[in-house]
Amino acid sequence: MAYVPVSSLRKSTLLLVPVAMGLLLGCQEPAPAAQGGEQLGELPPGDALLLASVKVALPPAGLTPADLPEPGSEGARLVTQYCVACHSLASPGSHSATDWPRYIRRMWLRLERLQDSFQLPLPSAGERQVMLQYLVDNALRVTASLPAAPGRDFFAATCSSCHELPDPAVHSSEDWVAVVRRMMDHMQEIQGRTLTPEQYSRIVLYLETVSGA
Q1: What distance in Å separates the CA atoms of residue 58 and residue 119, rounded to the nearest whole number?
Q2: pLDDT value of residue 115
Q3: Is residue 101 a contact partner of residue 136, using CB atoms and an 8 Å limit?
Q4: pLDDT at residue 7 in the model
Q5: Using CA atoms, how far apart are residues 48 and 69, in angstroms rounded to an integer?
Q6: Domain definitions of the chain by residue range
């Protein structure tokens, strides 16, 4: 799988990385007895909103270590070992090469501040470098200028709501059918909406037309 979309709110919600759930739950005081209709252990509205916001940015489930680029590499092994401690495995194609350094650094900073009671593994400095290089080397290939063809503007507006615009040449015309279908599933999971058959066909036709351009 070449890439997995992230939330359309990525610029704000990714500030609340998945490990924030651990921070929040670890800091909770014992819940008082139920009063005024409150359920025992129920989170305050603000905390519940925080957890919901974090979950929006989580990588979609379903990716396995075998699906990663170069699955036998040290980078793939380390990403699998450390990242799944907090969330589902993410594809390196979730972000562009320019985005990965700040995203993964933010996760490391928060991971270091988790309470010891969570007993989460911390990558060494050397392992972090290997992981970052692996993610950058296999990141989403993006483009700043899409080839002209019918459907270009609709493709750009739709797909940029979740991630950077991919280079149409990243897949063959035959592969785009399955890739767009997979992205529709992720859109449904993350945004609660999906494409109509006509919209799906417009995007696929555009990508099939320009993938070799």
Answers
A1: 21
A2: 66
A3: yes
A4: 36
A5: 36
A6: 10-26+44-137, 152-210
Of 188, 175, 197, 18, whose CA–CA distance to 108 is shortest? 18
142 DSSP assignment: B
Task: Encode 65-80: b = buried (16+ Cβ within 10 Å), e = exposed.
Answer: eeebbeeeeebbbbbb
Each residue's pLDDT tens digit, 159-170: 888 788 888 988
Helix (H) or strand (E) holding 198: helix 197-210
Tell me, yes or no, if the pTM score tops 0.85: no
DSSP 33: P
Tell me the pLDDT of the chain averaged across its residues: 79
Yes or no: say if 5 and 58 are a contact pair by the CB < 8 Å rule. no
User: How big, in percent rounded to 5, are the helix, strand and coil portions of the chain?
Assistant: 55, 0, 45
pLDDT-wise least confident of 10-19, 62-71, 201-210: 10-19
Could you tell me which residues come within 8 angstroms of residue 169 by beta carbon, excluding any fewer than 6 positions away? 141, 211, 212, 213
